[in-house]
From TrEMBL:
An annotated Gene Ontology molecular function: metal ion binding
Keyword Metal-binding: yes
Cofactor: Mg(2+)
Taxonomic source organism: Zasmidium cellare ATCC 36951
Pfam families according to UniProt: RraA-like
SUPFAM superfamilies for the chain: RraA-like
Protein name: Uncharacterized protein
Key words of the record: Magnesium, Metal-binding
Domain of life: Eukaryota
Transmembrane feature ranges: none
Residues reported to bind substrate: 99-102, 121
Residues reported to bind Mg(2+): 122
Length: 232
């Protein structure tokens, strides 16, 4: 089993919040949270849908950016099985940059799901496929009149005025009802080491809270001595 597959398997029981907690301890700003991205398919912020996988990135640029590179073929035909497709649209772009045909092909390729830093369209098509898609918003219009793909599987910047975050190919993306978190690939093993102990501590804390215990004393009992990763 590859290192990436082993990390994905180890993360399956956990939520995006669990991963963010670990990343805070590893000094990652905002715990890797990518604000504004929410679930649109298979349902709108409902259910147990969760996607975890290495990022396969696609960068759109404004159509008049002639100096930007142009891929030789369509990105959707090269999506690796198990990956999470991350589409980066230009800031403030009104047009959608991802549609139903893209999910149709991505699903056939075995992708875990898609995350759109921008708008998606053809919402019902994604839902009919039961394919997980997270995005910032929905739109109606295809991107061709205003934007084009520039780079595939290269680092992309997350569109945010509040933070400076980049998604690199192979970074682990975790998305569920809570939101989307990016786990840098070079911190993945350390994060996995942290998560199991912190989740166990939270479960023990919750158990005692349900029996009437005070949060302050219970939290100190179970959470104060959480282990740190071996490499720190």
């Amino acid at each position: 089993m590859s290192a990436s597959k082993a990390i994905v398997k180890a993360l399956q029981p956990y939520t995006s919040c669990d991963v963010a907690d670990a990343l805070i301890k590893l000094k990652v700003p905002h715990g890797g949270f990518l604000p504004g991205l929410t679930m649109w398919s298979p349902k709108r912020q409902e259910g147990t849908t969760k996607i975890i996988g290495p990022a396969y990135t696609v960068k759109y640029v404004r159509k008049n950016y002639e100096n930007e590179p142009k891929p030789a073929s369509h990105y959707i035909d090269t999506v690796p099985a198990g990956s999470v497709l991350f589409i980066s649209a230009p800031p403030k772009m009104i047009n959608a940059c991802y549609g139903g045909l893209m999910s149709t092909r991505a699903q056939y390729s075995g992708a875990a799901g898609s995350i759109i830093d921008g708008r998606l369209r053809d919402l019902q098509e994604h839902r009919d496929l039961d394919f997980p898609v997270f995005a910032k918003e929905v739109g109606t219009t295809a991107p061709a009149e205003v934007a084009r793909v520039s780079e595939v599987n290269s680092p992309v910047r997350f569109n945010s005025e509040e933070q400076e975050t980049h998604i690199h190919p192979g970074d682990i993306l975790i998305a569920d009802l809570n939101g989307v978190v990016v786990l840098p690939k070079d911190l993945a093993e350390q994060a996995v080491e942290l998560i199991a102990s912190q989740v166990e501590a939270d479960e023990n804390t919750a158990k005692e809270l349900k029996q009437g215990a005070l949060f302050d004393e219970t939290s100190k009992k179970y959470r104060a001595g959480l282990k740190w990763p071996k490499k720190l």
